[in-house]
Amino acid sequence: MAQVNLAVVYYSSTGTNYQLAQWAAEGGRQAGAEVKIYKVQESAPQSVIDSNPAWKAHAQTANNVPVITPDDVVQADAIIFSMPTRYGNMAAQMKQFLDSTGGIWAQGKTVNKVVSAMTSAQNAHGGQEATILSLYTMMYHWGAIVVAPGYTDQSVFTAGGNPYGTSVSVDQDGKMKEDVKAAAIHQAKRVVTVAEALKKGLQG
Ligand SMILES: Cc1cc2nc3c(=O)[nH]c(=O)nc-3n(C[C@H](O)[C@H](O)[C@H](O)COP(=O)(O)O)c2cc1C
């Protein structure tokens, strides 16, 4: 039985990527995967978090979400990452976690993970594609297999047409401007389908 272990790994300050992660988890479960959601370790000082009401509120909401470790990566067959853009790049908290995977990388334990990424930004063209690609660059070094959504479903067009991964823009109040739920679910299903086929193939 090749049930896929899907880890959804996110960073979020104000909740957008937390929501994207929930939708990806929903899609993963619909596709039959065993799904776990993890956040990455926060590195911002508590005083900075507390100074932003939306950030403070979200930190409390996500208080019980487990923090990802490199060993959780080893256990997963597939991983969906979600993180906000920071000047057209992934949030430092996500990069910090990925930089801590050198040990498992050196042991070959990141090889053949099926991966995909999602993101958010404030502006419609605020760096979503570049952010996802910055994460995919690291994945090629992992020896991971990047499964982007491409234009494989109508939901990709409805969400704004980003073939690299589901992305959304948010207004000043943190409200999503595009309807991306179906795209996030589709992306996760596609990841699980590919991971399942790969797992079956590798098991022979
Ligand atoms: C330091 C910093 C840099 C940012 N850079 C950009 C940017 O280059 N383009 C953009 O559209 N939004 C930018 N944003 C807005 C965030 O991407 C947005 O707040 C985030 O996607 C919300 O996701 P979250 O609710 O999961 O934290 C930036 C925010 C911060 C704090």
UniProtKB/TrEMBL annotation:
Pfam families: FMN_red (PF03358). Belongs to the WrbA family. This is NAD(P)H:quinone oxidoreductase, type IV. The lineage of its organism: Bacteria, Bacillati, Bacillota, Bacilli, Bacillales. Residues 6-192 form the Flavodoxin-like domain.
